[in-house]
Amino acid sequence: MTHPTSRVRLAGAGDALREQRVAQQRRLHRHRAVNMATLAAAFSLFALYIAWLEVYGAGTVRSDELPMAVAIARGPEQADGVDRAGLVKRGEYLARAGNCMTCHTSDKTRPFAGGVAMGTPFGTIYTPNITPDPDTGIGQWSDAEFLRAMHEGIGKTGERLYPAFPYPSYTKVTERDVFAIRAYLNTIVPVHNTPPANELRFPFNQRWLMLFWNLFNFDEGRFVPDPKQSAEWNRGAYLVDGLAHCGECHTPRNFIQGLASRARFSGAVQAGWHAFNITPDKVSGIGNWNTADVVAYLSNGVAPGRAYAAGPMAKIIEDSTQYLSGEDLRSIAVYLRALPPVRGAEKQPRDTLGTPATAVTALRGAVLSGANGVNGAQLFIANCASCHRWTGEGVGASAPGAYPSLIHNSVTGAADPANLVMVILHGVSRKTQQAEVWMPSFGNQLTDDQIVALSNYVTAQFGYPRSSVSATQVAQLRKQPQ
Ligand code: HEC
Ligand code: HEC
Ligand code: HEC
């Protein structure tokens, strides 16, 4: 006979079992629903991918070695397999062309030791140490692993790398050139340094998700020269679309941060700065620049009477393009000038706007004053005229190292006033073999309202007259990590 309490207990145990079974079934059901949803999502993504391939995929050819020697960037020296020193030297040249330095160096005394904080819409990524340190750098990576990272965006243990590392461009670089870069990196002083961990929000901290990103935005494969084009064009294409990754900043991005395959090089925003339209459109792009302008701009940051490089572009020139040979720079210019032109909303080229200020301009300043009665003209005379003159014409014409004219200047003449605000906030600092250029930053001296008044005065007088900036925009630009 069973004791009543034990019966109760048994009944209780039975209930628990039943409940467990029901819960199990529910879980199974939920699991199946989740599985179905995942499958459906994966299928839709796959279908989208197929559709995408239909539209853009045609003509994508993969090739692992370069059939045409002409497309290879020429360094100061050509290296063959035996010439070790030559190989390292060429690797150094190519590492400069790829600008590995800017992104992987947070402390100039420890080059390539990583730790640069890169702001992305999804959080902050810290660049890794790529010195040959065996514990914290890439000292233990095989050449094949290095090649896979550059060509496929896959890390040492098979993890997917984020495209903040421009592997979607580096995939175009020949195996030979990647190995030369590796040979050079092997000669760098190893630095023991572990950069901070990434601060990415869920789900962007899930590296495997890059698999989907890659499906839509990544075309793995080496550069294929176009035999119909000149050797110069091919070399330019190899550099611009590959190592020099110019499109990573100058090409607009789609909603998942992939580079839009249409409107290439028609301009995009990078860390608050507008990386201008550099297609050969005569109004919105750089169609009026000649080859010498492009070469001068990339070698010292000044296209006389047109443009001066600040912000991220100044870094590119300082760490990368100033070291490229004249032949490579000319090839870049040839390729840029042959791109399909893209027209924006502008009515006049940004480097043709503005007139010098006259004595009455300062008096008229009251009319141009911005918020809270701050007078832009007076602010200009107090803060900027010592170098750019009160007329805005500058001192020393546009030689590198001069105080440039703000008239016929691509920053004041741009429809988007962001770069002007950024120049006022952060100043200009650019060091090349030809000149060291420095403009102070006014971010700590001037309030947002003062910058509004100043910037609106500068664009109205010296640049794009319809452009205007608000205090909210200035506050947002101030917050952009540089
Ligand atoms: C625009 C910035 C940028 C440039 C330019 C750049 N990198 Fe990186 N690189 C990154 C970031 C960010 C990561 C980390 C990606 C991640 O964590 O998924 C990275 C990762 C790597 C890795 C993987 C290291 C590891 O520990 O996983 C290697 C190797 C590498 N870069 C080599 C290079 C070389 C060589 C160059 C020059 C040809 C270069 N990078 C240029 C941003 C850059
Ligand atoms: C890290 C982002 C970045 C990369 C990479 C980059 N640029 Fe730029 N570029 C900019 C920004 C930002 C500006 C605007 C600079 C300024 O306002 O002074 C600019 C300006 C320019 C201009 C001047 C346009 C004008 O009208 O003033 C040219 C030409 C140019 N870039 C060419 C290139 C080429 C060629 C490459 C590749 C070798 C390249 N850029 C790579 C961000 C970038
Ligand atoms: C101490 C001298 C000095 C002062 C003061 C100064 N600038 Fe400059 N400015 C420079 C120099 C130097 C450059 C960079 C020239 C070059 O790139 O070759 C420059 C560049 C610029 C550019 C072009 C940047 C580009 O990317 O094309 C603008 C716009 C500009 N200044 C606006 C101003 C404004 C507005 C003020 C006042 C708030 C000001 N500057 C104050 C020296 C000065």
From TrEMBL:
Q: What is this protein called?
A: Fructose dehydrogenase cytochrome subunit
Organism encoding this protein: Paraburkholderia humisilvae
Which cellular component, as a GO term, is one annotated location?
Answer: plasma membrane
Report the PROSITE patterns cross-referenced here: CYTC
Transmembrane annotation, as ranges: 33-52
Cofactor comment text:
Binds 3 heme c groups covalently per subunit.
Report the SUPFAM superfamilies cross-referenced here. Answer: Cytochrome c
Domain named Cytochrome c: residues? 86-189, 231-340, 371-462
Residues that hold heme c 2 according to the record = 246, 249-250
- Tell me the superkingdom of the source: Bacteria
Task: Name the cofactor(s).
Answer: heme c
Q: Which residues bind heme c 3?
A: 384, 387-388
The root-end lineage is:
Bacteria, Pseudomonadati, Pseudomonadota, Betaproteobacteria, Burkholderiales
Q: Which PANTHER family match?
A: ALCOHOL DEHYDROGENASE CYTOCHROME C SUBUNIT (PTHR35008:SF8), BLL4482 PROTEIN-RELATED (PTHR35008)
Name the gene that codes for it: fdhC
Residues at which heme c 1 binds: 100, 103-104
A Pfam family it matches: Cytochrom_C
Recorded GO terms, molecular function?
Answer: electron transfer activity; heme binding; iron ion binding; oxidoreductase activity, acting on CH-OH group of donors
Q: Which UniProt keywords apply?
A: Cell membrane, Heme, Iron, Membrane, Metal-binding, Repeat, Signal, Transmembrane, Transmembrane helix
Which InterPro entries is this protein grouped with?
A: Cyt_c-like_dom, Cyt_c-like_dom_sf, Cytochrome_c-type_DH, Membr-bd_ADH_cyt_c
Any idea where this protein resides?
Cell membrane
